[in-house]
Amino acid sequence: MLEIKNQNLTVSIDSHGAELTHVVNNKTGHEYIWNNMAWAKHAPILFPAIGRSTDDEYLINRKNYSMQQHGFVSDYDFEVICHRDTELILSFKGNEETLKSYPFAFELKVSFILNLNQLMVNFEVQNLSDNILSYSLGFHPAFNVEGDFEDYSLSIDPECEQLTKFEIVKNPFPYRSGLVKDLPFSGSTFDLNHHIFDEGLVILADKVDAVKLQGPSYAVGMDLSDFSHLCLWTKEDEELPFICLEPFFGLPDKIDEKQELANKEENDRLVVGQVKKYQCKLTFE
Q: A Pfam family for this UniProt protein (predicted)?
């Protein structure tokens, strides 16, 4: 486990998957990140896919390639590029194994930088292949929700009168139906309730620049303006005390529609040699 620390926060990161595992308030001892085997993850990185592909496959020039849920980088060790008191940079490059399911050369760098009570999580994707690189990128942090779930609220920025989401169908796994529907309440600030997740994950169709989780004694803010969507999730069918706030660039497949990677809806794309950076800024109060 790798650690960065300042006066306000102590942060732990596992080089396996470059996964954020702990954020602790040094003054109060509060742990912000979920750590419980009821969901045995903390903050996985999703690349080069988000959600499930139809039949766990996708197409390149009509040829089938397998792709597991949320891609594969969370299953691999990242190389430490830089490790200072308040900064950590990790890197993963595609290898012979990943080429079997994703026939592209790439590098994904993930950096964690502390500044006061903020943690900047930066992602850098570089296309090292000879073709256009099409991919999704997501970040899946789970935050502790201690006490009553209903005592917490979410505030979405920019404000709007009615939030919308992509309709999700389970068959038995979650896919998009292709429809967009209203959330069952108005406004962009709302109290948490497990029933919000009765239909599964909630991927907001609206562009979200920031979100804040506010509880009775602590809060987490997230700036995700570099990403195209915000996903909200907790385990449906189980009332567990955590909420995931997930920046997405890309979307899960529509049900029963196997996708050509080059045309996959809302994927990002890089030309040969191109580099693109994304930042998710977390503020812990």
A: Aldose_epim
pLDDT tens digits, 79-128: 999 999 999 999 999 999 999 999 999 999 999 999 999 999 999 999 99
Q: Which helix H or strand E contains 220, and what residues bound it?
A: strand 219-223
DSSP 245-282: EEEEES-PPBTT-PPBGGG-TT-EEE-TT-EEEEEEEE
Per-residue pLDDT at 20 exceeds 80: yes
- Burial, 122: exposed, middle or buried (Cβ in 10 Å; 0-12, 13-18, 19+)? middle
Domains and CATH numbers, the chain: 2-284 (2.70.98.10)
First vs last C-alpha separation in the chain: 24
Q: Does residue 92 contact residue 78 with C-beta atoms inside 8 Å? A: yes
pTM: 0.96
For residue range 4-18, list pLDDT tens digits in order.
999 999 999 999 999
Residues 6+ apart with CB under 8 A from 193: 149, 150
Q: What are phi and psi of 51, to 5 degrees?
A: 70, -160
Pairs from 65-70 (Cβ < 8 Å, separation ≥ 24): 65/101, 65/102, 65/103, 65/261, 66/100, 66/101, 67/101, 67/102, 68/101, 69/173, 70/44, 70/46, 70/138, 70/140
Largest CA distance in the chain: 56
Residue 278 reports pLDDT greater than 90: yes
DSSP 54-75: GGGEEEETTEEEE--TTBSGGG
